[in-house]
Design brief:
With 172 residues, the chain is mainly beta. Helix content is 6%, strand content 48%.
């Protein structure tokens, strides 16, 4: 997986103040990655993308306030509303043993024993459990990330090994 790929970490919620600061809705409120970056990619809803230098970033409760080099007033900040703020995958901090980033599991093969069931389509985080959405031939399967179902998430081996899918029903 390329360290140069851009990963969306937040969405521009609105302008903050009159000097062009942006209030970001961060997808993972525990993450501080955006606070230490010199450059981000802004991905607009229409597909346009622009790499932009970061002048400053700071926490504001559950959000991040960010000042981009080319955004100097409220009108320009309003133009960026709804855009995604992305960081290079290589800027993420190293992980501990058994940890993984959600962006790294998308596309991994999912195996039950020797049988390939499908691949990870999405990662969802609910208040009680994180799940992998697995695309199978029979539909999508929501697999909770708990030891009863998941034996191993092997990002380097590009696979997820399951213990069981008992009680899980695919949706169409």
């Amino acid at each position: 997986m390329s360290e140069d790929r851009w990963i969306p970490l937040a969405e521009v919620a609105r302008a903050h103040g009159v000097r062009g600061e942006l209030r970001l809705r961060v997808f993972n409120s525990d993450s501080d990655i955006l606070l230490g970056l010199d450059e981000v990619l802004i991905r607009f809803p229409n597909g346009d993308e622009h790499e932009v230098s970061v002048d400053a970033a700071r926490r504001a409760n559950d959000a991040i306030l960010m000042k981009l080099h080319s955004v100097d007033d409220r009108d320009r900040a309003d133009e960026v509303r709804g855009a995604l703020v992305c960081a290079r995958r290589g800027e993420f901090p190293p992980l501990g043993e058994g940890e993984f980033y959600a962006c790294d599991v998308i596309g991994l093969d999912v195996l039950l024993g020797e049988e390939t069931l499908g691949h990870v389509k999405d990662f969802r985080s609910y208040p009680s459990v994180d799940i992998l959405v697995v695309r199978t031939e029979k539909g999508e399967l929501e697999v909770p990330l708990v030891a009863v179902y998941v034996d191993q998430v092997d990002v380097e081996g590009k696979r997820v090994l399951l213990r069981s899918i008992e009680g899980l029903e695919p949706t169409v």
